[in-house]
TrEMBL record:
Gene Ontology MF, one: 4 iron, 4 sulfur cluster binding
Protein's name in the database: KamA family radical SAM protein
Species for this entry: Actinoallomurus iriomotensis
Keywords from the UniProt entry: 4Fe-4S, Iron, Iron-sulfur, Metal-binding, Pyridoxal phosphate, S-adenosyl-L-methionine
Keyword flag Membrane: no
Length: 459
């Protein structure tokens, strides 16, 4: 079945280039290219002291329409915006930068602002990190019975950062906020004591930032674990650096590793993040998709619904249709998580449902593999199924796609209609109930979803 030695078309090969990253030190010149004034550029730099910025030459040259910047959706996808944070915080940080304050002073204020942004939502650090032999396993999360998340140490960066990213805390240089692990043998021993686990998700950051030899060190040992049915790789690299599978020096070796997973009888699920239809247009992407699929891997696509970037049904319909034509499987539309600049990017739950419904109704059944709009909240993945009227009362209808307690999976529940609600913790139970049925299921006590949200940083 191997096709990894097939040469890429000449037109695609000639667009290959060495990876070049652009970071905060390049912000001023890049935002000037977008037409920002000096004061606007200063505000952008201020935001970048709190939230991460990194992009690359492919994104700048192939994806951004500079004639439409700064309103271009791909520009907004990767460049910080000065109004992403409260104005008073941006002003204070801008003043420090303007007077060339010591780095330690700027860093201290940036840290204060970060701590107000719920850097690890939905109990990632408090509720999801498992223990083995009475010792915690940093860089590992086990929220749902069947699936373990692993954060490979060398994969905790990306080819470019998305401004909405809910994992932004991984990239800001604060060790206490970062999740990373490199002991794959300990993971194997943990799996031996948890036979219910059938799927491993490599996440980050972006595991595909790693070269093939490092990636192999993590993946190959898991091929010996009989209970594992699927290995998943969560990545944005197909959108931000498709050269990884076409013209990079280790592209063929990486594809052979993918084949090895398939040949070992495991499902290799390639979880590709595409946020906007333009990310699918370059020929390099089509070629990378072809080569990955030829290894036996299944590419599933997912992204959050983001205000000012992809908050229209026409864009989602276009994405799902094109992904299907390319042989990918539409998988998830997410709701922007309650972290970072959520207020800047999130739409209401009602609007999220309308966008999903209006896109979904216009695609064929083969595209209707997609699920959503979904919130990855503290108790589980909650899908908004619509706004309904029951007994004269307007309500949200919801259900769990996945849950800490599997007994709640696929069971519908209702919440009072709230036109301003953007997240699960904004909702209240319907029909006069004091609690939702699932409240109290989080480990360690009878804690409600609202109480967890109120305690501070909490997936």
């Amino acid at each position: 079945m191997t096709l990894v030695n097939d040469a890429a078309p000449a037109a695609v090969r000639t667009t290959g280039r060495r990876f070049r990253a652009y970071t905060a030190k390049h912000l001023d010149e890049l935002t000037a290219r977008a037409g920002l004034t000096a004061e606007q550029r200063l505000g952008t730099r201020a935001v970048a002291t709190v939230l991460p910025f990194r992009t690359n030459s492919y994104v700048l040259d192939e994806l951004i329409d500079w004639s439409a910047a700064p309103d271009d959706p791909i520009y907004r996808l990767v460049f910080p915006q000065e109004d992403m944070l409260p104005a008073e915080d941006v002003t204070r940080l801008s003043d420090l930068i303007r007077r060339d304050a010591p780095k330690a002073e700027i860093d201290a204020l940036a840290h204060q602002v970060r701590m107000k942004l719920n850097p690890h939502p939905a109990g990632q650090l408090q509720l999801n990190i498992p223990s083995f032999n009475e010792e915690p396993m940093p860089g590992v999360q086990h929220k749902y019975n069947e699936t373990v998340l692993f954060f490979p140490k060398q994969g905790q960066t990306c080819h470019a950062y998305c401004t909405y990213c809910f994992r932004w805390a991984q990239f800001v240089g604060e060790p206490d906020l970062k999740m990373a692990a490199d002991d794959i043998d300990r993971l194997k021993r943990y799996l031996g004591s948890h036979p219910e686990v059938t799927s491993i998700l490599f996440t980050g950051g972006d595991p595909m930032i790693m070269g093939e030899p490092v990636l192999r060190r993590y993946i190959e040992p898991l091929l010996e674990v009989e209970q594992i049915e699927s290995i998943r790789i969560g990545t944005k690299a197909l959108a931000y650096w498709p050269q990884r599978w076409v013209t990079d020096p280790d592209a063929d070796d990486t594809l052979r590793l993918f084949e090895q997973v398939s040949n070992a009888g495991k499902n290799l699920a390639f979880m590709a993040h595409f946020t906007h239809p333009r990310e699918l247009e370059p020929a390099m992407v089509s070629e990378a998709v072809r080569r990955i699929r030829d290894t036996g891997a299944v590419i599933r696509t997912q992204a959050p619904l983001i205000r000012t970037i992809n908050d229209s049904p026409e864009l989602w319909e276009s994405m799902w249709r094109r992904q299907l034509r390319m042989g990918m499987v539409p998988y998830y539309m997410f709701i922007e998580r309650d972290t970072g600049p959520q207020d800047y990017f999130a739409v209401t739950l009602e609007r999220a449902y309308e966008v999903f419904r209006d896109a979904y109704k216009n695609v064929s059944g083969l595209c209707r593999t997609v699920r959503g709009p979904s919130m990855s909240a503290t108790p589980g993945k909650v899908c908004v199924d619509g706004v309904v009227e029951v007994g004269g009362e307007k309500l949200f209808l919801l259900h769990f796609i996945q849950c800490r307690d599997p007994e709640f999976v696929n069971k519908p529940f209702f919440a009072k209609y709230d036109p301003a609600a953007k997240w699960l913790t904004d909702l209240r139970p319907a029909f006069g109930a004091e609690r939702f049925p699932f409240e109290g299921i989080v480990p360690g006590g009878d804690t409600s979803a609202h109480d967890v949200a109120a305690t501070g940083p909490s997936i």
